[in-house]
Model the fold of this input.
Amino acid sequence: MSCEICGIDVHAHGVPPQFMETVRKSSLGGVKVEGGNGKYTVTFPGAEPLRPVTGVMVDFTERLNWMDGQGLQHQLIAPWLDVHGQELPAAQGQEWVSELNNAMAEQVSNSGGRLRAYATLHLADPAAAARELARANSKLGMTGSMLPTFFPQGDLADAKYDAVWEAAQSLDMPIVLHPTTDSPSGCMFDAIPRLKGIYGRTLDTTVVAAQLIMGGVFDRFPKLRMVLVHGGGYLPYQVGRLDREYTGPTGLSASEYVKRFYFDTCLMSPQALRMLFDLVGNGRVMLGSDYAATSVERKSPKLTAALDATGIDAEGRKKVVRGNAESIFKIGK
Done:
């Protein structure tokens, strides 16, 4: 590549400490925040306290040093899924995400354009979520949104969420789907809790993506851009099973619908990446680190190590490292 620091990481997390302080002082939405000085405990009404929000999750300075070491020019950041506030009622939830989006936009504004924020949407009222997406785009300069694969109000394949997809398509804002900490697959791993994060969440992504395909979302919104993190879960590698069970209304196979998604390289092996490239092409894959949600930022492995081990050619590497994300997230435009 022509520059030492030019990659784009499309999958990272962070929680603005000023948002935590605002909630701690105001109890926004009835949410209780305790702590301070870079370590916070969040408790939603009627729920158990979340894991502490601390370390690099609230440190937006150290990540810039990590990015330099990884050759990254930009990083797209979404709040930790635990604090998206989907548990809140509709009105309080809209207020919550509005304040969270404002705080995220303010937090990244001091990075010289290197950090970008994803919009957070509360999904209890899809029409209100669509309006917040438009506000985040026009007022806050956000060019994408990260949504949970599971939330209390329903599932994303339901037609009642078409207002969100319509807004995302109209605004040309990619939707990044990310599994949650507590999700349907979690009960499968009660005996081995460590596997919830290792395999459970990727299973949730697989199921939701398949539901979206079979629910006709891509048929109704043919220009909608969706990104699946963690390499798409199991979907690209087990799509042959879905091919035998589902054909779209226009005769498209499930494999053709899978090619409508974009994917990140997060936690992928070279062998799996090669298979992903074979299925969807290198024009649909982008760098992803899961920064702040895993140990990657502490161990500091080379983010492109698996990619380079695939033997990808220089032109394809440029697409994965920067070009694809630059195009769909309008970075530098």
Residues 229 and 264 are 5 Å apart (CA to CA). The chain has one domain: 7-13+56-328. The first helix runs from residue 17 to 26. Residues 7-13+56-328 form a domain with the TIM Barrel fold (CATH 3.20.20.140).
